[in-house]
Specification:
The chain has 6 helices and 5 strands; from the N terminus they run ββαβββααααα. It is mostly helical. The protein has 2 domains: about 60 residues, no CATH class; about 80 residues. Helix 3 packs antiparallel against helix 5.
């Protein structure tokens, strides 16, 4: 069975045959535990700090994953990176088009306008992604400049 674990940083872990979600989460809680400290005589100075399992990772269904508060920011960052990569590729292609226009004696003003729109795209995309509330909408978002 493919159980899913959502980590506090928004990444997803597929359990598969690696064990159980409960066991993996328990291991992560143990790893995140701050051990107690002791003085020279062995007296506890500060107790161990054991985080709540729900603060480290949670077992999650596919439907709940789409709107979980931990996943949304990570999905938005990932989508913005994809948009930036597509924008960069389009800018490179427009560089070639501008060179060809310049060599042919054509006015590359329209190309300059397109390139400026692409340069202005990241803040516009960030604002649009900020308004989205599920991972399906985030994955489907594509600015008009990249269509």
């Amino acid at each position: 069975m493919n159980e899913q674990i959502l980590n506090a940083n928004g990444t997803l872990t597929m359990v598969g045959d690696a064990g159980s979600a409960v066991g993996i989460i328990a291991g992560r809680v143990a790893a995140a535990t701050v051990p107690a400290t002791y003085d020279a005589e062995g007296n506890e100075v500060t107790p161990a700090v054991v985080p709540d399992a729900a603060d480290v990772a949670v077992e999650i269904t596919g439907a709940a994953l789409k709107t979980h508060a931990w996943r949304l920011p990570a999905a938005k960052v990932e989508r913005l990176a994809e948009i930036r990569a597509a924008r960069d590729a389009k800018l490179e292609a427009l560089d070639v088009d501008a060179l060809i226009a310049w060599e042919n004696g054509d006015d590359p003003a329209a190309i300059r306008t397109q390139k400026q729109a692409l340069r202005d795209l990241p803040p516009v995309a960030e604002a649009a992604l900020a308004a989205l509330t599920d991972t399906d909408a985030i994955a489907a978002y594509l600015p008009a400049e990249l269509q």
